[in-house]
Amino acid sequence: MSNNLDDELRRALRPVDPGEEFAQRVVARIARDSTVSRRHAIARYQWLPAALAASVVLGFLTTHDWRMRHEQQGLEARKELLEALRVTGAKLDLAYRVLNDEARVSANGISGA
Asked: Using one digit for the tens of pLDDT, what is the confidence trace for 47-66?
């Protein structure tokens, strides 16, 4: 029984020449599969240029918005500074007039006494 099984296995597993057509089919399939895989690779990354362009546009818009906000803050700070300088100048003028008026009164009072 063991020899019979061995013989059957040898017959079933004996090498068989597939012929020239088999080799041609394998080469044709390899060529077709490589073309298909290249197409899939190209299709897989078709979104990449659009994503890069969107990223660049988003970066420009973000930078522009940031610059505009900082420019607006700078203008507001300038306006507040000018108002503070105007108020300070008015107060200094008032103090100058008060001191000059008191000095004149004191000078007139001393020389008139």
From this structure: 888 999 999 999 999 999 99
DSSP per residue over the chain, as a string?
-HHHHHHHHHHHT------HHHHHHHHHHHHHHHHHHHHHHHHHTTHHHHHHHHHHHHHHHHHHHHHHHHHHHHHHHHHHHHHHHHHHHHHHHHHHHHHHHHHHHHHHHHHH-
What integer is the mean pLDDT of 67-84?
Answer: 96
* pLDDT on residue 24: 86
The identity of residue 88, as a single letter, is: T
Q: pTM of the predicted model, to two decimals?
A: 0.45
